[in-house]
Amino acid sequence: MKIYFHLNLDGFSNCYLVVNEVSRQALIIDPCRVTTDLLEQIERGPYSLAAVLITHSHPAHLRGLSVLRKIYTPKIYAADYEVAGSETMVLKDDGMLQIAGLRVGYLAVPGHSADSIVYKIGQALFTGDTLTAGMIGNTASSYARHTLINNIEVKILSQQEDVVIMPGHGPPSSVGAEKKFNAAFAPAPDHEPQQA
Description:
The protein has helices at residues 36-44, 59-62, 65-71, 142-155, 175-181; strands at residues 2-8, 13-20, 25-29, 48-53, 75-78, 88-90, 95-99, 102-108, 117-121, 124-128, 131-132, 135-136, 164-167, 173-174. It is 21% helix and 33% strand. It starts with a strand and ends in a 15-residue tail after the last helix. A hairpin with a 2-residue loop joins strand 9 and strand 10 (124-128). The strands form 3 sheets. Strands 1-2-3-4-5-6 form a 6-stranded mixed beta sheet, with helices on one face. It is of the alpha/beta class.
């Protein structure tokens, strides 16, 4: 398995091409924008595009899906039916899929959005906006923030520390780095009473 990174400067969102070099199949995670570089990489492989995985339905992460669907016929996986209507394989809760000859785990991690899903392929977690290097995703309320932090702690930070975080924006990180440096998970400081 190889992972190729493509940056979309419009919104600074990340798109990932994951290829199985044995089966010559590929999948794309969050097609924020379809560029000639991305298409040439698929065609030069040559790889068969088996699937598109959407981490959540915000436009910055799926803007290029309509272009991909005009060129290829991939299966589309997301937690929101509206992503591609009847062509969407709707994912619920947590589970495991076999796509392009790869084991793809998926974890429902609502908080940033109701349909946020994190995908695990090998030792990489594709987190969308749920978790980025040093930050967690924006939320609409304190309840949603609490839900997101709890979900991240239970489903992501419980993974092995060397698991790589491949976020929807910004640089990669690791579970270990996020546990150690992400301010959202830092323990509350101890307040010792001042002496008179």
